[in-house]
Write a structure and sequence with these properties.
about 350 residues; alpha/beta; QueA-like; Thrombin, subunit H; 7 helices; 17 strands; about 20% helix
């Protein structure tokens, strides 16, 4: 299975640079995951596809302003860190740039010394472990000095930081937003609940694992970085009961999907737990947790295109993307949405 099998041509002007003024005003491409049939809708129409008793699973992670720009104390050279995984003792695993300027012992200053960092381990592919030094509360200092870590294909300035958060963001720790959830408003979630849909959440702190490019030709040789996840006792109970009763589980985003599939493949049921997952989902993967998936349009040759192809069919997905391009859908993080749905069986 070649990485090139998941490639497609996207006109650059279709890469959404800013969020829509109204979160739920985006387009929605609805695809029957079993036969590839397409419908063009608005995102608010998604309520029509839900049934009483369905379970909608959100990822409640909250993005931290994880991009820090500082300078080496000895040379004043500019250094950029992207905080990915929190370790013990004020230590973080970070993506660094320029990597070659950093060595074990290098000290970096941010905000005229308000925050300092020391490199304690240098890894591969731009990754370093740093220890931070500061007075006060780390997250408050980070909120003051850090920037929202927007993807590199977004060049426009984000005027409102909250637009790169879901309305239900709760648990701090992500280096990127779970973007499928950006389409939901409080009002839309209220309508969904009024229809009898059970809304629950899991946590996956989005890090490098989701967005790291696939640089090997053979898909099966790609290795995912691990990301922290958590599922509560309440959510596990809701999901297990839904499975037992044959009700649909609908994941909002590939991140929620990865949590649910990680847990059910590990334990055979949904279980309250937390840990790190490096699950890599590509065609041939057997889904056991979810029935339908709400997602965005993803980068060519990315692990996310591979995941949605596994959930449906690679050719169906590529055909849907081609149709979306013809219809001028907006792509990637601030773009439009796609609903890969399972048809409800007739009784």
């Amino acid at each position: 299975m070649s990485t090139e099998d998941f490639n497609y041509d996207l006109p650059e002007e279709l890469i959404a640079q800013t969020p829509l003024q109204n979160r739920s005003a985006s387009k929605l491409l609805v695809m029957n995951r079993e036969n590839g049939e397409l419908e063009h809708k608005q995102f608010t129409d998604i309520v029509d596809y839900f049934h009483p008793g369905d379970v909608l699973v959100l990822n409640n992670t909250k993005v931290i302003p994880a991009r820090l720009i500082g300078e080496k104390e000895e040379t004043k050279a500019t250094i950029e860190l992207l905080l990915l995984n929190e370790k013990q003792g004020d230590c973080w695993e970070c993506l660094s740039r320029p990597f070659k300027r950093l060595h074990v012992g290098t000290q970096i200053s941010f905000g005229n010394g308000l925050l300092k960092a020391k490199v304690i381990e240098k890894k591969e592919e731009g990754m370093v472990i740093v220890q931070f030094f500061y007075n006060g509360i780390f997250l408050e200092i980070l909120d003051q000095l850090g920037e929202m870590p927007l993807p590199p294909y977004i060049h426009a300035k984000l005027e409102d930081k909250n637009r790169y958060q879901t309305v239900y963001a709760k648990v701090l720790g992500s280096a990127a937003a779970p973007t499928a959830g950006l389409h939901f408003t409080d009002e839309l979630l209220r309508k969904i609940k009024e229809k009898g849909v059970i809304v629950t959440s899991v946590t996956l702190h989005v890090g490098l694992g989701t967005f790291r490019p696939v640089e090997v030709q053979d898909v099966t040789k790609h290795e995912m970085h691990s990301e922290f996840y958590q599922i509560s006792d309440e959510t596990a109970n809701i999901l297990n009961l839904a499975k037992q009763e044959g009700r649909f589980i609908i994941a909002v985003g590939t991140t929620s999907t990865r949590v649910l599939e990680t847990v059910i493949h590990k334990y055979g049921v949904f279980k309250p737990c937390e840990g790190n997952t490096n699950i890599f989902i590509y065609p041939g993967f057997e889904f056991q947790a979810i029935d339908s998936l709400i997602t965005n349009f993803h980068l060519p040759k990315s692990t996310l295109v591979m995941l949605v192809s596994a959930f449906s069919n690679r050719q169906y997905i590529l055909n849907a993307y081609h149709e979306a391009i013809l219809k001028k859908y907006r792509f990637f993080s601030f773009g439009d949405a796609m609903f890969l749905r399972k048809e409800k069986e007739k009784i």
